Records
---
Amino acid sequence: MRSFRIKNLFSLLCAVLIFTLLPLNFIKAETPTEGPFKLPPLPYSYDALEPYIDTQTMQIHHDKHHAAYVDNLNKALSKYPNLTDKSLEYILANLDVLPVDIKEAVRNNGGGHYNHSLFWTIMGKNKGGEPKGKLKEDITKTFGSFENFKKEFKTAALGQFGSGWAWLIKDKYGKLMIVTTPNQDSPIMMGISPIMGLDVWEHAYYLKYQNKRGDYIDNWWNVVNWDEIEKRYK
Ligand code: MN
């Protein structure tokens, strides 16, 4: 009788333990994965770029899209702990030597994390206008005028078929250049740190501008943070 009770008590304890731990596992699966990379907070409020970029787009773009890139990058790297102490720039500039089973995931999600982290910082509330100083000088020298630079940048951004980015970079000879990349590819994958970049994925503008990518680009100039871009240029 006594041993029967102990056995029952033991089964009961086991059942309690299992039912307590099970839901914990489910909760854990929904929280972001642990890993070396973290989602940086937006440097301004979600509505700071209104009316040019709407609040809901910023919420979904930062909290869902960018968060997913960070999460999936951490998941891919978790298989290779020797990579987790490397900087994102280093990893992206050395995709060729990554293990083949994570190369695509790191390219897409690492690129996404790098590109969006940059994108948030080169926009801001009550920004726009024109660059000043050396950047203005070099833009005028390279593209004829600031107006013409904007025109060429828009043409490139419109011409990127499907999802991708338009960039202003300094090439290896120190000359300013406008380039585009598909998907989440980034100049950093060629070892070039971009000065400025525009996200032309539909998720960046579809809610407000639908299919009108050109209107999104025209309005984007109103939120461009030239002070920050000037800093990156130096
Ligand atoms: Mn995006």
---
Amino acid sequence: MAYPDMLSLKGQSALVTGASSGIGRAVAVALAEAGADVAVNYHGSREGAERTVEMIHALGGTAVAIRADVASESDVKALYDTAEQALGPLDIVVSNAGRQKDAAIGDMSLDAWNAVLSTNLTGAFLVGREAILRFRRKGMRPEVSRALGKLIFNSSVHERIPWAFRVNYAASKGGLKLLMESLAQEVSEERIRVNSVAPGAIATEINRAEREKDDGEKAMLALIPYKRIGDPEDIGRASAWLASDASDYVVGQTLFIDGGMTLYPEFRGGG
Ligand code: NAD
């Protein structure tokens, strides 16, 4: 098969969590551009999810918005049931939902710790576990993909780079690294591909306050060798590639998409 044809997701169904905004929306749209039908999960913003669905309809694609809290076991099961009723068995799942609740350690409440861990890590576990169960039930569909299923987590450069004043977030993403790798080790022999994308600084709601501070963007750019803040579409395109047969031999990897942030640019010429 020629390389451009391998990028096609035609005939496949996908679920993207936290797709009412930011990176999740861009991933949902990129998967639809590649031909997949997409279930657009949201938690707070129904309007945001409907906007994502409209963007996919405008491309001539198929999409449906479904509310669920990824930290709730019963919500996650119901999310998959509704997605499969609407689109048929799922071939691709992108566990993207995530949040921050920053505080210095002395001020970090247990609630702030639990809120971030339950969405970013427990949510990834619940969404990932259900993806594996559903892929198994679906069975191979060699006419659309060489893999039984593709599960992609949205991690962060902070699965590698420690982050002061945000220990809850960094711990959740550090945990996600070994969740992804251990899961990949467990299920790869079933032809289930588990991988992560790890974004650097991408312009979305999650970091708007940080970017809009005086010199906020300048401080971010100092950490990025490539000297631009990322767009959600940078992650969308990479996720669509990771979901496609063009990356069929990529298993258990974290793809850093960060303009070089993980190169520790402060060491350039010094250190
Ligand atoms: P965002 O705030 O626009 O998106 C987060 C999404 O997750 C929202 O749609 C929100 O409704 C959803 N969400 C939060 N809690 C949820 C829950 N319990 N159930 C279901 N959905 C829930 O910000 P974003 O930057 O697009 O974040 C998306 C992912 O990207 C997160 O996992 C984040 O950690 C990761 N990330 C972002 C950046 C960045 O620079 N923007 C960098 C690295 C990693």
---
Amino acid sequence: MKTEAQHIVSLAKDLAPELIELRRYFHQHPELSREEHLTTQKIRDILTDLEVEITDCNLETGVCGRISSGEGKIVALRADIDALPLQEKTGLPFASLTEGCMHACGHDSHITWLLGAAMILTQMKEKYAGEIRLIFQPAEERTSGAKDVIDAGVLEDVNMIFGAHNKPDLPAGTVGIAPGYLMASVGGFKITVTGRGGHGAIPHLTQDPMPVAGAILTGLQSIVARNVDPLESAVISVGSITGGTAGNIIPGEVTMTGTVRAYSPEVQALVTRRLHTLASATARAFDCTAECTGPKFRLPPVDNDPEATRIARTSTEKILGSDRVLDAIPVLASEDFSLYQERTPGCFMWIGSDSPDKGWHHPEFTVNEDCLSVGAAVLAAAALEALRELNSGS
Ligand code: NI
């Protein structure tokens, strides 16, 4: 008699060739955020074949489905489905057929994991009670898809949610899981330094904003180095400086734009306050003015619930063995999975995909396809473990 974990593993193993074929189909047909029509249709077709109930969530792209098996709690599993505006250079036989568009973040494998999990869960219906909600979310790359899914009511009554992203620096067959912050909040800012322009040879009759911008740029480095607690994390990067038209003209204005990444609301507030003070006070010291807008934090951080994380770790260790479940290392990239976690306890995991040199958003990015059956099994197992624990705790 097989244990539940062994059952999941053997189903996932049997599905491996089909999952590889599916991933290659999605890889060959990438679609940008909000344009995932073909992807949506393919997912719908597969769910229909599996007799998964497709729920009408009024999404133009993206699909939500439901696998019900009697009375019980509701657990959601989420995958993102969009691709990036990038020309693929992998040379793979199943490379993108769409010019300038590529699954360079591996969302093709995320779709495949969730379809694989649906295949496993529909075959194991007699083993659990409750409902599993499947969310194939559009437009993650634009950080707007999760909000649409939530606005459509898909998260209503959901008791717990799980999701995962491929992780190129982890070997295929391993999974990274940890409670707490996993991915950061992101916010953009703009600083406009205003002075008075004039002739480059007569600087004393101008108020030159150029050295002021330089002083602000240098000063900004002190915020992370001197104001943020060394045990916390934050990044401030200035990505553009614009000003001036010719070498002998002192411009009247210089504009800088940048990005801030941080986890906790306290660090976000600290960085915001220091950014504004530093910009305006530095400009004043040079007889100029500076106006700072932002950083406007678009997303909260991915913050793994301790209980959901414990459940995910337990179920993943059962199927992979404890030596293949690692403590997840956080990154300062962002993910709109965080919006689901604001509403229901959730855990976001790293699934090793083995592409350490050509990572996310690289034109030669690809995944080790061994991760496909692993991802399917990990998501299915987390859903079943969560249903069992939530049902018994009620
Ligand atoms: Ni991604």
---
Amino acid sequence: MKICVLPGDGIGPEIMAEAVKVLEALGLGFEMETALLGGGAVDATGAPYPEATSRLARAADAVLLGAVGGPQWDTLPREQRPERGLLGIRKELGLFANLRPAILYPELANASSLKPEVVAGLDILIVRELTGDIYFGQPRGIETRNGERYGFNTMHYTESEIRRIGRVAFEAARKRNKRLCSVDKMNVLETTQLWRDVMTELAPEYPDVELSHMLVDNAAMQLVRAPKQFDVMVTGNMFGDILSDEASMLTGSIGMLPSASLDENNKGLFEPSHGSAPDIAGKGVANPLATILSAAMMLRYTFNQEEAAARVENAVKKVLAQGLRTGDIHEPGTTRVGTREMGDAVRAAL
Ligand code: IPM
Ligand code: MG
């Protein structure tokens, strides 16, 4: 059980330290090795996803990632930006299925900017395709044509790419409330007409799951109007990027949300949904719970350790019930703690 640990940039190292301690406390005998990804990797080696990291990630059963990026790397050539490291590892490891849950913990109902009755009990899973679409489409670039600059990207999907993410989504819906909403823009984009067709063709194989379709603009609206209508949503890489940020904010606490990116064999990369938060990096105040919950997803999906995963998730619920809060989720009447105290509390609650 080999885990490649990539703390990354900003608050990454601080939150990762807590997740690693939680994993160690489980006493399951994981072998963990740390490597560089993102801005720190660029500074040390010139590349955001260095060869040594790639070797370690390929040899591991799972990758646990903190966060990458920061303003000091935003002006580098595109190839050297931290984000490129993230896209590189996703593509190289074939991590096509991105699972992004948006769950509202009852204790944190006030953190949402939506009315409590609109979001109480919210539990959505967004299944985002992660290795195709306009993110990776060729041709792409900025060129000079007819005396002016011209920017272009290419959106495309093959039916097999759509089918395999569709299956992941149908299977996930089957384990939940059996409702799947596929999101596209078929009224304008051919690629997503194919998306809708393939999803519709898959549906008869999952007669227990109710499939619906929604245009992405409407989906963005429905997510803030009546988010509890959704159970599982499945969509392409770019729409999924946008809708998953929107869904995460329904909970008001992006510091709580984990994610999983899986390949065909459930090898995966697990990371919090939030970014590297350079503004609070190094201060010991970041919320480590999303990373700890990402480790729980790793236990469940890659290592098939459902019991250990549930132990970690219950420990997180327990510390919330105890009233412990990092700054991002703090409200009057609760106890403000730092990154390390929060991690320690989770270990104590295990
Ligand atoms: C995400 C991020 C990345 C993406 C960026 C950092 C490349 O926004 O994981 O959602 O767009 O996929
Ligand atoms: Mg994003």
